[in-house]
Amino acid sequence: MEYREIGHSGLKASALSLGAWAIGGGEWWGDNDDEVSIRSIRRALDFGVNLVDTAPVYGFGHSEEVVGRALAGYHDQALISTKCGLWWDDKEGSYHFSRDGHDVYKNTSARCIKAGMEQSLKRLQTDHVDVFITHWQSVPPFVTPIAETMGALMDLKKEGKLRAIGASNISLEQVKEYMKYGQLDLIQQKYSMLDRAGEKELIPFCEENGITFQCYSPMERGALTGKFQLGYEPPKGSSRETIQWLKSDRLPLVLELLDEIKPLCEKYGCSLPQLVIAWTAKRSGSFNVICGARTLPQVEDNFPAGALSLSDEDFKKIDELSKAAIAKAGD
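Above: the chain's sequence. Below: its structure in token form.
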């Protein structure tokens, strides 16, 4: 496993991190066995994974609670990343969605950031988080200036409650605004070999400024594993319902791409998920790749990718094939 510094924070994180969204369960992911999730998190540590990414909204506190239980006594081996900016304690903010009986609002005010931190620390059973990320950015009608948001984050950093600051689902202009008011070490953005919008502006900017680009959904929520075949329909209300590459008009293009790269699995002695993850991690030295896992088989299938080194020639081959698939889709 390769380790890369998170921005300029001094924190060294494994190039692959464990994403704990599914561990929260609920309407997005269905029921979980928490004891299995705990064993899975600890098993990931055996592969060299030392960063676990969660958020309050994942199961409305449940993911953080499970991560806290899993890492109790393991804080010397693992970094914890969690988030703020999605709020459901009251109705202040800009309405975002309703789920599991909660109305969720985008709110990056100092009040909600600081209150959210205290709630997260309690659920995670710790006195600090290593990376604290604004989950979604402020939008009308409840707009919070980034100066206020970053001011609150810098206050928490001075208090020792966080070690690095991140921002997710963000524009380049917002990144630059954050940087006016403090040290931004990480941005978290959707990226996969079939969703490469970040290559236009955000990734080059991160590379030039020493900011970690943390990719979420590198497997397109399962589309790139090969487990979904023609005729698959994502369940209504599930986490996969919004994934365009699982739609009936695009899934054939995904399966065609996977058929073209499968011979490399035999060459490297790896699975399709491992090949896709290894390609994503190699895309940039600024990358940290979030791999979701809540069961032992998922951990066993994803994280050996940390030891997989693709040749430049094979990286380029996959790169060209993925761009061709995107072009066929008209993106």
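The longest helix spans residues 251-268.
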